[in-house]
């Protein structure tokens, strides 16, 4: 029998978890969102309120009525056993291997056998976690991009142990909540998107840090010559400079030099990207 999901739980209600829960509920699924304590649940309520307004402005068909119904329809809980009663559980807790492994160990004993687990991890491979789930055949990665309602890719990546029927059901689910599912045939750190994006952004930084061309000239070249709407520095301003800086700092000598350049010229001057009003460009709103 084909696997179908109706009840969906999201673990972790931070930046991505709140968006995944909201998007899933907005598309009519029965959603429970779990976080560790009352303070995190209060923060989740605020995030859902902000998302309701954002959807009204940015999502076709969203209005005050259906976004309010979406918020009301999400059950918030600090009880993992409550969240475990689901057909599909999407995990979006901090990117710390020990936190994820501990959570899956507990979850594996609480959730019904049928329940499928999906991790939204950006940098870990599902095989780093699979054995802790107690159900490697019903576990895979389902990776969303920040601002899920707009940048709506959902990369689906299993391990060698993932049941193909589970993979297919998660692909269908992604499509049912308005995502464009991107299927990976085997595990790859960075999935498709970051395998392309990280080297691209680093090449842009290397051109500017090496004194070859200024950021606006690099961006202009890319835009005009390829028709793309944004060059690497415009993208970096949207992402924020801190995460790319941390990724570079963990690399070899060449990457370290690029990290130092970012730090001296931008991060130390408070130019962290569009969210702070200035990065490579200045933003007035
Ligand atoms: P975040 O720090 O904003 O949120 C994490 C949430 O998890 C918090 O609400 C925290 O209270 C909660 N949490 C902490 N420990 C927990 C536990 N044991 N059980 C349940 N909840 C717990 O993090 P985020 O940016 O939303 O990232 C979450 C996951 O999503 C990470 O794996 C990250 O790699 C991935 N991701 C993030 C982005 C992004 O742009 N932020 C994009 C794609 C994927």
Which fold name corresponds to the CATH topology of the largest domain? Rossmann fold
As residue ranges, the low-confidence spans are none
Oligomer: single chain
The secondary-structure element order is: EHEHHEHEHEHEEHEHHHHH
Largest sheet: 8 strands, mixed
* CATH first level of the largest domain: Alpha Beta
Q: Helical amount among residues, as a percent range?
A: 40-55%
Task: Give average pLDDT, whole number.
Answer: 96
Structural domains: how many: 2
Portion of residues in beta strands equals: 5-15%
What topology, given as strand order, has the largest sheet? 3-2-1-4-5-6-7-8
The small molecules bound here are: nicotinamide-adenine-dinucleotide
Give me the CATH superfamily of the largest domain. NAD(P)-binding Rossmann-like Domain
Q: With helices defined by DSSP (H or I, 4 residues minimum), what is the helix count? A: 12
**From the 3D coordinates, which CATH architecture of the largest domain would you assign?**
3-Layer(aba) Sandwich
